[in-house]
Amino acid sequence: RMEGQGSYTLLTGTEYRGTLRDGMFDGEGELVFPNGGRYWAVWHRGVPTQGKYTFADGLKYKDKKWHYCDGYDRRFYTEICSGLKPAGISQLTNLDTPRKIPEGCYDCGDGFYNPETRVIVDYKLRFLRNADDDEHEWIIRTCRKAWDETIEHKPKP
């Protein structure tokens, strides 16, 4: 079994870098996700006991009193870092030019969701997972969908 310092790449493309013991994550280690996000944690027998997630753009997740993109301050992280766009030019996602969502699908944050098949694929259209009832309801209720009205704008070169 794997033992000591090392790295391990899962089939999903996620890479673990850190300490391994008896084939499990154990001690300090970090998961590096294909989308650029990172989860650093202290692991015990494969289970994180404490950890911190950092999104690909540098935004650090807080599990308590996290007011990112809530009713008090609805700015995206790129708007917090770079400022708001001029009046009349809305930013629909944290990406300056939002992804084009396939017809009939939703953008659920780590990929696209098709409510007919209940399948989530990554942004390169590779299978990620099947949505359970709770995730299905959350996506339908909160995520941006392909048929939302959008106003196109082209940034100045």
Automatic annotation (TrEMBL):
UniProt main location, coarse = other
Q: Which Pfam families match?
A: MORN
Q: Name one GO cellular component term.
A: motile cilium
Which domain of life, per UniProt?
Answer: Eukaryota
Cite the InterPro entries for this sequence. MORN, Morn5
UniProt keywords (A-Z) are: Cell projection, Cilium, Flagellum, Repeat
Gene3D superfamilies attached to this UniProt entry: Histone H3 K4-specific methyltransferase SET7/9 N-terminal domain
Q: Where in the cell is it found?
A: Cell projection, Cilium, Flagellum
- The reply on keyword Repeat is yes
Claim: Membrane is one of the keywords in the record: no
Protein's recorded name: MORN repeat-containing protein 5
